[in-house]
Amino acid sequence: MAARVSSIFIYPVKSCRGISLLRAPITATGFRWDRQWVVVNAKGRACTQRVEPKLALVVVELPSEAFIEGWEPTQSSYMVLKAPGMNMLKVSLSKPQETADGVSVWEWSGSALDEGDEASQWFSDFLGKPYRLVRFNTASETRPVEPEYAPGHKVLFSDMYPYLLLSQGSMDALNELLNNPIPVNRFRPNILVDGCEPFAEDLWTEIRINNFTFQGVKLCSRCKVPTINQETGIAGPEVSETLKAFRSDTVLRPTKKQKGKVYFGQNLIWKDSLTVAEGKGKVLEVGDPVYVLKKVSSANEAAA
What we know:
Elements: E1 3-10, E2 19-21, E3 23-27, E4 30-31, E5 37-41, E6 46-47, E7 59-61, E8 78-82, E9 89-92, E10 99-105, E11 108-114, H1 117-127, E12 131-136, E13 143-144, E14 154-155, E15 163-167, H2 168-177, E16 191-194, E17 204-209, E18 212-221, H3 238-247, H4 249-252, E19 263-270, E20 283-285, E21 289-295
Parallel strand pairs: 15-16
Antiparallel strand pairs: 1-2, 1-16, 1-21, 3-4, 3-20, 5-6, 5-12, 7-8, 8-9, 10-11, 11-12, 13-14, 15-19, 17-18, 17-21, 18-19
């Protein structure tokens, strides 16, 4: 055993606040409910904290039964959104009827399910310009990950891959270098593990958690979101400068092509998801042991 799962997080609305769970059903596209929704601007482009850091202040709540395997929403099942100075917004978990065309997230574009005028007005009022809330339409759309890294796998509205894993050891090592230590919510992982050396996850190319095999696809390159205080929505420079000093490709991958990136965390896919049949028992829990099946010898050898 290399580590244990110490926390599980999902982020139902991309770039809004996460939910910490003790157990979560897994799917090919990530934990259930993770990044099913995204806020889009008038042109249909996904809006994230990179553009609207105030999204960090939007609290998302789902009914506790939503995390029971096989549970399906009823007409009275809602996601609840809260934000400073705003009335509570209830979004039905039943699929909306309206669609929005021309929705785009990074390189992908397609149609999505539109959550309606009330949700649109709520986000527009909070952020101060026109936005809409849309939901991934799994019935008509697919969004593949980079085929050169994980052919056949797909995501909903996550940036790149279905799962992001980070270790507490890596967080502790970073915080030792910062004047003002930061919580893990800056990095928005799905799986936090504890008990391994700092940055051990850089090397993991295949791991097993609760009988499920995950592939470490590539190191996670970081944008400006880790600089944003998730309690205030205000960015500061220290995190970027510190990461650049010891987690840049110049430091970690000196013999590889330099991309000017910094890395923190490992992107994962659920390897069995392309072949496994639907059924019960597809759940990860806090406390699950993590076994490393395959690894590389250094971050220089890891895909990124």
